[in-house]
Amino acid sequence: MDQQPAAVRFYRRLLRLFPAGFRERFEPDLLDLFRDKHRAAAARGRLSLAAFWIRVVLDAAISAPAERFARRPARAAGGVLPMQGLLQDVRYALRVTARRPAMSLVIVATLALGIGANTAIFSVVNTVLLRPLPYRDASRLVMVWEQMLERGDDDMPVRPANFFDWKARARSFEDVAWSRDAMYNVTGDGEPESVIGYRFSANMFEVLGVQPALGRVFRADEDRPGAPKVAVLSHKLWQRRYAGDTAVLGRAITLNGESYTVVGVMPPAFNHPQGTELWTPIALTPAIAARRDVTLLRLVGRLKPGGTREQAEAELAALYQDLARQHPETNTGMTQRVTELGDPGDAKPLLAILFAGVGFVLLIACANVANLLLADAASRRRELAVRSALGASRARVARQVLTESVLLALAGGTVGMLMTWLTGDRLAALFPANISNLNLPLVERIDVGAGVFLFALLISSATGLLFGLLPAWNVARADLQGALKEDNRGGSSSRRTHGALVVTEVALSIVLLAGALLMVQSFVRLQQQRLGFDADRVLSARLLLPQYRYGDGERVAAFTRALVERLQAMPGVESVGVTNFLPLSGWWGTRSFFVEGRPDPAPGAEPTADNRLATEDYFRSMGIRLLAGRTFTARDDGSAPRVVIINETLAKRYWPGEDPIGRRILTGGGEDRVAHEIIGIVGDVKSFGLEEPTHAELFFPYWQMPWPLLGVAVRAHVDPASLSAGLRQAVWSIDRDQPITHLLPMEDLASESLAFRRVGMMLGAGFGLLALVLAALGIYGVLSCSVARRTREIGVRVALGATRTEVAALVVRQGLLMTVIGLAIGLAGALALTRWLASVLFEVRPGDPATFAAAAVILLIVALLAAWLPARRATAVDPIVAL
Length: 883
Prior knowledge:
The protein is α+β, with helices and mostly antiparallel strands and about 900 residues long. Helices cover about 50% and strands about 15% of the residues. Mean pLDDT is about 85; it is low at about 70-80 and about 485-495.
């Protein structure tokens, strides 16, 4: 009786890859032999069984196409399982590879570049786009945001009262959890440190479907005001600050001056929201839960089984319309948006484009290698004919060629995988580590694990079959017996086949080259944009002053004044400025305002601007231009009249063609409105990166409303990094327990804001250049083979009076013909495909004619150079020797 029904069923499916005639003749014998071999392998252990299955699958992948190429049914080799001949083919392929080392090295190097590049990009795609979230049924997890599109507010946290109004009425969700961001100063057990934290509702971990690695998560009774304070640590913080000590459970730690008990440690993969290192209960008070004027809660919902994001969004749209009717003063014009949890944002389109581009590179490499193997097969026709005459079937000969191809591809894939493993983490430079307000995921390392290795194995095997099919097909259909009567030069593969492969290479290359030039042009134009500040020689730092120690404005102002005085006294310092939100920092906030003398807008349509504070030397320290009026002075303190500085965008939006200096804006609501006189206009600053539109900004004097969130900018006469130690000392001389974060030159931040674009552009340009080189090599290789095959013909032409110029023109014309045909096809394809680049281009049209013309000219020049070398060799043919 059959002892392995599942294994036999799988082997039957593999046999379906073979032609029907083959199965009719050999399937019963092969199944019997398979059962015996499977039992024997299983008896020897798992390793032997795994090796057995690898041989079976590889044999089917190589033998089935070979059998289908055969003109006559293959001989049955005495009922022997086909895989038994595979080891013989591998040994012979190794001998053939060693016999032609130069050609083998060229093929392996070409494939290593193509497969290595594909594997490297796949490792990024796998880390960012494909790797599932470490949560139970992650596909059912969504996030809910509020929007006020009329005001330009997109994807804001949800107002608490709105959420609790619709939470019980929403039927699309199994449950919804809420949270808010927080910063925690960790002190008392080592160097002070600021960490990104989140305050979670007690059901958040249950909604996400995740369990702690150590201890427990919050209980419901701990998520209420006045409850004992507890905390859960991230695995990263546990390892970094507490050395992975399991005794941390139950230990008291000091967060923002208060004692918290550690109750759990999360697994290494848990990172919600990204970059968070500490979680505490949110414990909303009833007063906060009833507010509709603050965007506070970040919601994670778990959809009911079978529910969809679109259904939830439609249900919430109706609920928000009802909220707008009930509370028009706060909810008019408000909509909502439901997104997938872990949305990669702007990373998805660029990574998809890079993955497609590197796939084109591999196809070009395959065409190149196929051309080389076709030429090699032509030179081996007598050898293959001898094997056929000695009894080898056409299918067996074709299988030998496929085995050699797969072996070369696996060698190239191994080298490419090694390159990926050694350089994988360098691709993490795509994702900024210090700028959190870009719409990009936080990626600290690229995962080069089992999934990437499996991808490399699969793509190597598929690549070997892809470029080996054409030579195998040629061998299977050739007149091998006739080759025994020819000399070594008699057989040759079709010139049209060689030409078609080169045309394919050129067509794919022009698509990649045009796309690369568009990306380079886009990046150049992006770099030409002005950030609006001078990042050169500026050191930046961020501080969060804890409320328990700096609970009022006077204490905050005293700390800030002391810090500014100490920093200004440091050697090499030119000026010191302080704000609440530094450009490119990821810290930001908005404020509604009204223009004095104008009617109040409808509820929900109030003008808003980014809310920023500035000391008197902030604009000078950051190199922000003053366009009109004046900047703040030390006299603009709490006792002085309220003043404000606006940026150019806000001035043009609300006072187009007018001078706003001396006008007033109103902040606050009802009878508590405060008037601020506009005293200056400063240049626009790209606070969210060069690609984001410029926001309207209001700058208020720091000394009129001191804020515990400090962004420090120190302009220096020297290298700003050399002042880092002095800045730390200045802070700790005032408060030894005050942490400092993001202490780095502003120039590094400015560079990092373009990192995703820069690295993406460099990769795209590299793929375009690689495609260009491979196309040139393809043209050179085909023309070189053509000259070698046509040596007698060229000799005859020269003997009959052809000049060297005419002979060279003959070769160059052949190369240009293939190039022009490939260009025509490729340009048409590029026009259709580059429109997918629109989402990653900046101020460049995907179909830009100048870019396409430049790509065509570059490729023609390279093709001429590639054709010139074989043409030069053709002119050196001696007709006496050739004849």
